[in-house]
Amino acid sequence: MTCAIALTSPELVLPPPDGQTPSAVVLKAPEDQPLEAAVADAAALLEQQGYLITLFPAAPALVRRLHTVRAVLESDRIALLPIDLPPLAVAVLARQLRQLSMADFSPGVLACAARLLAHYIYAGAQLGSVAGLEKVQVTMAAHVRSWVPGSQFGVLSHLTPRVVAIGRDADPPAPGFTTQLTIARDQPHAEWITSSLAAAWQVSGVQEVPLPAESARWWGTPRVAEFAAAIPDPSVLYQLVASVRREECHWCGLELIGDRCAFCSSPLLRDEAPRALSAPNRPARPALAAR
Question: Residue 30 belongs to what domain range?
C-alpha cells in the first residue's frame, strides 16, 4: 500500500525537485472545515493511499482535531507527528519524506524517518529585530541592539540555537555534510543568507520559495528571511534511513526505526535495545556525502 504525506497548510507544500516526487495532501484547519467533513476526507485518503503521515505544529486546536479524526475512524494507519521546527524547515522535511515515499520503505519506517531526518536540518532566519523572538534564547545585549536602526541578526534555531549580530559576530558553524539552502523571505534584504552564509556553508544550491504565513508568528516579526539547509540528494537520504536498525512494534506490528512507533506511539520494550534516533546516537556522518 502507498503512503501519503499530509500537511496543515498549502504554503508548506514545496515544489517537487523533479517530475516524480508526489505532492503532499493539505488538511484543512478546524475553523475551515466541520468535523464530519474532516473525517470523511481522512477516510477517503486512507482508502486511496493506505497510510497517512501527518506533520503538524503543536497548535492546541489543530492537535485536538487531528486526534479526534483518528479516534473517530479508529484507524491505526494514521501517524500524527508534531514537529517543533520553524515553518520552512517543516516544509523541507515534508519534501524529503515525499521523496522517500517512492522508495521501498514500509509506512512505519517512513514515518519514523521524520524524527531522524530532522536532526540533519539546519534552520534559521535573518531578522531585523529579536525583540519578539521566543523560540531561541536571546541575550540582553542582542535585545538592546534590536533598537538600533539598521541592525540585522542571524538566528539559528536548529540544530544548535544561537543568535549572531550580522557584521559583528562570526557565522554559525557549517554542517558537516552537503546541503541545499531553501529560503523564504518577506524582507528585501537577505544578503547574509544568500551570500555570506551560503558561501561559508558551501551549499550545493539555493532555492527561493514563498514565505509561509506562520513564519511571522514563529519568529516574532513579519520582517523575516527564513532558511533551511538540508540534504538534497534522495540517495543519501535513503542510505541514511536504511542504515538504521529496524524493529517491529510489539503493539501494532508495524516496522519502525528508533525507540518509538510513529503510528501507535508505543515505545520499544526495554530488552530490544534499539539504536535511538536522538542526536547523540544518530548514524555516523561518514555515511553522508562529503562537502
Answer: 3-118+244-287
